[in-house]
Amino acid sequence: MSTAPETAATRGDGATRPPGPPPRHVPGEVGIWVFIVGDLTAFGVFFCAFMYAHGKHRALFEASRRHLTVGFAVTNTILLLTSSLLVAMAVRAARTGSRRWAPPLITGAIGCALGFVASKVLEYSDKLHHHITPTTNLFYTYYFVLTGIHLLHVLLGIMVLLVLRHVTSRAPGRSDTLIVEVGASYWHMVDVLWILLFPVLYLVR
Amino acid sequence: MAKLAAHRQTLLWAAMVLATLVSWSLSAERAFTDSTARTLTTIAILAVACVKIRFIGLDFMELRRAPLPLRLIFEGWVLGVFTVLVVLYLTKV
Fold it and tell me: How far apart are CA A204 and CA A201, in angstroms?
């Protein structure tokens, strides 16, 4: 199991680049991190607003939470965790300059993302079938808005992953590592948001 | 492929999947007969989520090797959101 830090050694023999990034490296570039920090902050405020409302309406929120199917959310969590692993592996594969593994790994991540979307469609359909809508009560307003905005992030993320699959499967270009790191950073952010959204909405009692 | 998979990230993924299942199990109906247990379990579930997020940031997003200010901003967000969520959860309005 590889746990030692990967460093960029000086190579003079024309061999493929080592897999690890150079030390003290901004993954991608600063702009995506400005976006990521902003988006994380916005969602942080949403989660705190939800928790405040939870404190004011505990009985209502708990009664409403019990109608959520936690199994959908657990499945979604595992799908996004797996997609993040596959994307992280694809980044490491892409850095070697080889086009062999990055594209299928990203395809796998896209598959996980599509599974998430399908699960969400099933979950929303189930709610609507039981006449539960965003206007049913305050809990469900938060539920639909928070998961809905996150779902939009996932849909955008699928398009980002499609771009990454294209970039990693064509002939290498000079900005490829940066593009892959930027796209991967966005995707991991989508995962991070869900990792917190899941317990806040589905598990907090 | 085996070389790509034999990495710290794969181990962390397995641990995070397990943590997800444990969190689900902890929050199940049968676990709560008194409010103290419910409160502590909820805080623990939120803490587990924040630990997961930290590992995603450090090892998947590669912040472990990023400039320190960027890493501190991310870790600060994780700690800040966790703290405010717990305070709000414990505050009876």
Answer: 6
